[in-house]
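> call design_seq(struct)
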C-alpha cells in the first residue's frame, strides 16, 4: 500500500486508490483504498515519514539496478573460440624426475595430495593421511628434507593436506586436523601460523602477487557458507568470501563448490569450476573481472558427487595455470575407452559408508585420459588442444605436470612430465 501526505490544501494523489491531504486549518483527512485511516496532525507527520521511506526505497532499488548493470558490464563473459590459433601445433610431453624415494625419509607413506614448485625449481609434496609430512625435493627429484614434523606445536603438523608457494618462495601449508595454516620462509624455517577454518580447510590455496591468500574451502560459518573462495590479507586476517553470485552449499554435491586456483597477472586469481568448463578471473579484492566459457563437445556440465566412483567417468578440470605470456593452461581428464577395466571394489572404510562393497579406481591411466588446452585470454581463443594417454592430475606450473604412481614395491610417488608447445 502506497501513501502520500501534503501540507497544502491541494490533494496529491500517489495512486488511483491511495491519497492524503492536509488543510491550512490543520484538519487532515488521510485515505487509502477508499478508507479513512487518520485525521490528526500526528497522522499526517507519520504519513509524511512513510512517504519519505517509500521514496528512499524506490531510489535505492533503482540505484541497485544501475549498480548491477554496471557490475555486469565490468564482468564480461567471453565464450572461447574453439578454433585453434595454431592448428599445426602440438603439446610435446617429456619425462621428468620422480618425486618420492622407495624408502627412507624421502618416501611417500600415502598417496600425494598436492604438489607445488618454487622459482628455483624445487618441488613440495603433501600426502593424504595423518603420518606423512610435507617433503621437499630439488629440481632433479633429489630429496632435500621434510618440512616441519609431526606434533601439535609451532611448525608441527597433524595432517598437512595442501600447500601453496608465494612468488617469493614462502611456503603455506594447510592442516585441517590441527586447524591452522603454517608458514615457512624460503629456507624452510617456521615463520608463523593462523588458526582460521577457511585456511585450515583450504583445498586448494594460492598466494597472490601482493602477498594476500585465497583459499578454496567449504567453511561452515554464517557469513561464509556457500561461497567457494575466501580472501585473507598479508597478515592472514580474513577479509571476505566471494566467488558465488548466490551462495549455495550442497553437502552431497561438493564438486559444485570446489575450485581450481592459479595466480593471475595483475595481482588477481584465476578460479575454475571442476564439473563445468567455466573459468573466472578475480582481482586482488575478490571482484570478478572476467568469465571464460569453453563449449567443448566432450565436456558437458554435470552433477558429479563428491565421493565414490561414477558409473561412467565424467570430465573434470584438474588444474589451471597462467604462463609468462598471459595464456591460460587448462589440465582436464576425460574417460579412457578402457575405463571399465580400471575399476575394482573395496569396502568404504574411512569414507564413512556402510559395509557394501563400492567401486574404486585401481588404475588411473586406464580410467582417464588427459586433455591439455592453452587459451589466449586476450583474444578469447584456443591456442592448442592435445589429448594424452596418461591421467595427469597435478600442474605445479605451466611447463611441468605430474601423475600419481605406485611402483611394484607399493611405494607411492609422483612422476613429473614437461610440457612444450611445438610448432609455434
Amino acid at each position: 500500500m502506497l501513501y502520500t501526505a501534503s501540507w497544502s490544501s491541494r490533494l496529491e494523489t500517489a495512486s488511483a486508490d491511495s491519497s492524503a491531504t492536509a488543510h491550512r486549518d490543520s484538519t487532515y483527512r488521510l485515505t487509502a483504498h477508499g478508507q479513512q485511516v487518520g485525521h490528526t496532525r500526528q497522522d499526517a507527520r507519520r504519513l509524511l515519514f512513510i512517504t519519505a521511506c517509500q521514496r528512499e526505497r524506490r531510489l535505492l532499488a533503482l540505484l541497485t539496478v544501475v549498480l548491477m548493470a554496471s557490475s555486469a558490464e565490468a564482468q564480461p563473459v567471453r565464450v572461447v573460440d574453439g578454433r585453434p590459433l595454431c592448428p599445426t601445433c602440438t603439446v610435446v610431453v617429456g619425462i621428468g624426475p620422480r618425486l618420492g624415494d622407495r624408502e627412507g625419509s624421502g618416501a611417500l607413506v600415502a598417496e600425494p595430495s598436492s604438489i607445488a614448485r618454487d622459482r628455483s625449481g624445487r618441488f613440495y609434496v603433501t600426502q593424504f593421511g595423518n603420518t606423512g609430512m610435507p617433503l621437499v625435493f630439488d629440481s632433479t627429484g633429489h630429496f632435500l628434507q621434510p618440512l616441519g614434523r609431526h606434533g601439535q606445536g609451532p611448525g608441527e603438523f597433524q595432517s598437512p593436506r595442501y600447500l601453496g608457494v608465494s612468488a617469493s618462495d614462502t611456503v603455506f601449508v594447510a592442516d585441517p586436523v590441527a586447524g591452522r595454516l603454517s608458514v615457512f620462509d624460503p629456507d624452510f624455517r617456521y615463520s608463523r601460523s593462523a588458526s582460521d577454518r577457511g585456511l585450515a580447510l583450504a583445498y586448494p590455496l594460492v598466494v597472490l602477487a601482493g602477498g594476500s591468500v585465497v583459499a578454496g574451502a567449504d567453511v561452515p560459518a554464517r557469513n561464509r557458507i556457500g561461497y567457494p573462495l575466501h580472501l585473507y590479507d598479508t597478515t592472514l586476517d580474513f577479509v571476505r568470501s566471494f566467488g558465488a553470485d548466490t551462495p549455495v552449499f550442497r553437502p552431497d554435491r561438493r564438486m559444485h563448490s570446489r575450485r581450481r586456483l592459479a595466480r593471475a597477472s595483475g595481482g588477481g586469481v584465476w578460479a575454475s569450476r571442476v564439473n563445468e568448463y567455466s573459468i573466472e578471473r578475480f582481482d586482488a579484492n575478490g571482484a570478478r573481472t572476467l568469465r571464460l566459457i569453453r563449449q567443448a563437445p566432450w565436456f558437458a556440465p554435470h552433477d558429479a558427487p563428491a565421493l565414490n566412483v561414477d558409473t561412467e567417468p565424467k570430465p573434470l578440470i584438474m588444474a589451471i595455470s597462467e604462463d609468462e605470456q598471459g595464456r591460460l593452461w587448462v589440465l582436464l581428464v576425460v574417460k579412457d575407452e578402457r575405463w571399465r577395466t580400471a575399476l575394482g571394489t573395496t569396502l568404504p572404510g574411512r569414507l564413512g559408508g556402510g559395509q557394501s562393497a563400492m567401486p574404486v579406481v585401481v588404475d588411473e591411466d586406464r580410467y582417464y585420459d588427459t586433455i591439455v588446452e592453452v587459451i589466449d585470454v586476450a583474444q578469447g581463443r584456443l591456442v592448442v588442444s592435445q589429448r594424452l594417454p596418461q591421467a595427469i592430475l597435478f600442474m605445479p606450473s605451466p611447463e611441468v605436470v605430474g601423475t600419481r604412481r605406485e611402483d611394484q614395491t607399493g611405494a607411492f610417488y609422483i612422476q613429473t612430465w614437461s610440457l612444450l608447445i611445438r610448432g609455434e
